Amino acid sequence: MKKRILLLSAIFSAFIGTSIAQTSNVGNPLTHNGKIQKTKTFYSTPAIDIDSEIATQATSGEKMMRFGKEFAVDLNVVELASKSILPSGDVVYQYGIECPNAISVNLVFDNFYLPAGAKLFITDANSNEFIGAYTSFNNNQNKMLGTEILYTSKVIVELVEPKNAIGTSQLALGTIVSGFRNLDEMMKALNDSGNCHYDANCPQGAAWVNQKNSVAMMVNGGGFCTGALVNNTSGTIIPYFLSANHCGTNPGGWVFRFRWESPVGQTVCGTGGNSVNGPETMNVNGGTLRAAYAGSDVTLTELNSAPNPAWGIYYSGWDNSGTAVSSAVGIHHPSGDIKKISFENSALTSSSWSGTPANSHWHVPGWDLGVTEPGSSGSPLFDQNHRVIGQLHGGASSCGASDLSDEYGKFSVSWTGNGTNSTRLSNWLDPSNTGATAIEGVDPAGPAAALDAAITNPQGVSGTYCSATVTPQVTIMNSGTNVLTSATISYGYDGVLNQTYPWTGSLAQFGSVTITLPASTLSGGNHTFDAQVINPNGSTDQNLANNTISSSFTTVVNGQTVALDLNIDCYGSETSWELLDAGNAVLYSGNGYSDGSAMLVEEDFCLDYGCYTFKLMDSYGDGMTQCASGNGSYTITYGGNTLAELLQADADFGTEISKNFCLNNPAGLAESTLASRVNVFPNPADDQLAIASTGIEVQKVELMNIAGQIIKTTAANDMVVTMNVADVASGVYLVRIHTAQGSTTKQVVIK
């Protein structure tokens, strides 16, 4: 099985957030494991003529980068699909899509909702590739999902619904995209634009940092475009995004990628070198169309969620006066490439383009640095005052072209549009009708403070430690404009900040240093580490929002290493497991193993003395069987002794099997001595138990049934501890006594 993930695939993921939509490590589609037959039910789109589609775009002059032909459909996958019931009771839906002559297929669902536990895959009908799984994590307010690309002409939509949520999924296809470009032409990704471009962070663009931070690349089903966030007169940050009408007017399933740019100092500036890649995770999905006007080729979309200000986002200012300008700058994503900047040093003139009204566009006579390409459509044009005055419609420019001119729809024409709220910018960007003709941009994070020390990245205080001692590390960063020369770290555990650590040094803005704090010894159990940075340069911090951190961890005072050897069959994606303590809290878990061949999973657990449950699960419902290489099995060992095991002969356990085991002090260790110094009385007991020790402080007492499940717990730090057992049913019980020098177990009868 080959799973291809392309550079730009993440931005096809349709969800609101900053990471890719797929949930990794949930296994392969069931059609890949051969346990169910593939559907024979296929919907077919009209065949496409690849040469004709490419030729049409080449002669259009528009600067949208199209890679596929979109077909509008209305297909309820849940109703139309073939259905299979798994041994586990889960239901599998399959529905095929065929796009004759297509090089690739991607889909847009216009009604999308998955219940918890459901998984959606899109798979090549030949089982060579797949994308997914999409899960309930991908649910969003627009109820839309745009998928990544599969390089095939036939795909199968596979939905798995858990038995407790059958019939609750909503999955309707609204658009099928038949790809007409080959791999090299289609994914005009990093370094695929021409050699005459200037990365946005080239020295020539140093004065345009704010405007650059407003620009994003967008994907709308069958193509790439560019656009920018713009400010409004209300004083409230609203994520309005300006782009081109010919890029589309149904933004519910679009994806917007911000801050995809080569880092400063690693740029390519008008040469043939390769740009350095930048972050690809600052993505927002979907929006609502507020205004569109073909006369100036404009759209204004309100994004479903505002981009995180921590990304370094900017909302550009604008000028709606229509006054001629002496020079201009364009910032864009040509051919779906990393962000570029272009410069026009001559005055612009008025024009029309492709049948639009007279004087509706700005004509760029010929770029002096850089050009635009397909994919640049919708990108903002800035005047010499750094304000938006238009967005790219089309033109002739490209690297090596004799004509380097371009045409931008005028912001001033878009301001009034066709006279209605849905066709003009004015009532959205000037909602109170102030009559403003120009406004400046705004940084939603506000200007940087002079004194701003931040604390981040706690290390050494998360997870589980087989020791009572932890050694924390924290990172101090200077987020202020003044050089940071001193600060104090106030820290502690479990909400009590009773320790301080003075730091001195020299950090310029955005500089950072990692500090190792003194080790601390704690009692066993769950804890929090809390810290704050105060007194930057001996003064008051001007931004308190980034001054505190907290993390959770567990210390196991009598920690013992217990080993799990899990031999998984060749259907690893079906297997998951949990290790639970006597109170049924999950301590460790595992899942997401690969299919195709058997594998050995080795895990080490840090456990205190006590009783535990190991639960093994199979999502298909046939245990760890049906594999040519043999059934699965496991062993759990401690000190060379087997505590629990599942033999291959017992691997056909259905959906779940649990086994209990207890971890006791091995013979010859301190428990025998400890047991002689601790007494439990009366025995038998009626209403109350007393636990008394000699010379050792009792920290905690647990009353457990014979199966090792905790019935009651009493915390104390005393030589004598009492426990009320009046409400406990008659029977034989175990009393587990924990001290700083170890633990011991006594048997008691309750009448």
**Structural class, please?**
mainly beta
The total strand number stands at 53
CATH architecture descriptor of the largest domain: Beta Barrel
How many structural units, i.e. domains?
5
Oligomer designation:
single chain
Under the CATH scheme, which class of the largest domain? Mainly Beta
| pLDDT < 50 stretches | 1-25, 183-192
Coarse shape: globular
Discrete helix count: 7
CATH topology-level fold name of the largest domain: Thrombin, subunit H
Radius of gyration: 32 Å
Task: Give the termini separation.
Answer: 63 Å
CATH homologous superfamily designation of the largest domain: Trypsin-like serine proteases
Percentage of residues assigned to helices? under 10%
Strand fraction: 35-45%
Q: What's the average pLDDT?
A: 86
Largest sheet: 8 strands, antiparallel
Write a structural description:
- This protein has seven helices and 53 strands.
- The protein is mainly beta.
- It has five domains: 42-179, Sandwich (Jelly Rolls); 198-429, Thrombin, subunit H (Beta Barrel); 447-555, Immunoglobulin-like (Sandwich); 560-664, Immunoglobulin-like, CATH 2.60.40; 667-750, Immunoglobulin-like, CATH 2.60.40.1220.
- The strands form twelve sheets. Strands 2, 13, 14, 15, 16, 17, 18 and 19 form an eight-stranded antiparallel sheet that branches. Strands 12-22-21-25-26-27-24-23 form an eight-stranded antiparallel sheet. Strands 1, 4, 5, 7, 8 and 10 form a six-stranded mixed sheet that branches.
- The chain is globular, with a radius of gyration of 32 Å.
- The two termini are 63 Å apart.
- The model is unreliable at 1-25 and 183-192 (pLDDT under 50).
